[in-house]
Amino acid sequence: MTKTDVRVKFTYQDYLHMPEDRRYELVEGEFFVVPSPNEYHQRISRELEYALMTFVKKRKSGFVYYAPFDVVLSDEDVVQPDIIYISKDRRSIITHNNIQGAPDLVVEILSPKISYRDHEIKRKLYGKYGVKEYWIVDPIKQTIEVLSSDVAGYKKTGIYDVNIPLSSPLLPDLSIDLNSVFYEM
User: Using one digit for the tens of pLDDT, what is the confidence trace for 139-170?
Assistant: First the structure.
């Protein structure tokens, strides 16, 4: 007789009962601990969120949120992206406790311990659920890769660094000087 590995798939209800002393994400029914971000990560997040929020508020085009805030993509997929944008036309997915569905834009800032998860696993996950644009921020290289959804998944629309202002197909006229995002103290 052979032993069969049985993998338990967890759900959003299980997620809601996890201890609150750590941050978790649920991907394909599997729990992942999200490590606490370092100071540089937080600074990058703050600067990007501020630039995005300023742009969005000026145009009254939607809503910007930052982690920790649950994005419930399905009963087995619950994530907390670093920054999310939801257009005002899709405001119905915003609830008091979470986002119910795919945001228009997701920003993930790579952390050394989980960069594969953010770069590969979440890229597939966000594509599967219809996130229109995905920014992958690399603090070490000081770059932001912008990916836009198309029929085949995501296509790279640009890699931006301190010499090239970030632009977004999803948000026309957006221009972010990355010197203000990746500044050194």
Answer: 999 999 999 998 778 999 999 999 999 999 99
| Threshold 0.85, pTM exceeds | yes
Does residue 79 contact residue 24 with C-beta atoms inside 8 Å?
Answer: no
CATH classification at residue 75: 3.90.1570.10
Tokens 């228009």, residue? 104
User: Binning pLDDT at 50, 70 and 90, where does residue 1 land?
Assistant: low
Give residue 67's Cα distance to chain centre.
Answer: 9
Which residues are 26's β-sheet partners? 31, 78
Residue carrying structure tokens 């670093």: 82
For tokens 């993998």, name the residue: 7
**Cα 76 to Cα 55: distance, rounded to the nearest angstrom:** 33
Rounded Cα gap, residues 171 and 133, in angstroms: 10
Task: Report the domain count for the chain.
Answer: 1
| Spatial CB neighbours of 165, under 8 Å, sequence gap ≥ 6 | 175, 176, 177, 178
Measured between alpha carbons, how far is 164 from 162 in angstroms, rounded to an integer? Answer: 6
Domain housing 93: 37-160
The single-letter DSSP state of residue 37 is: P
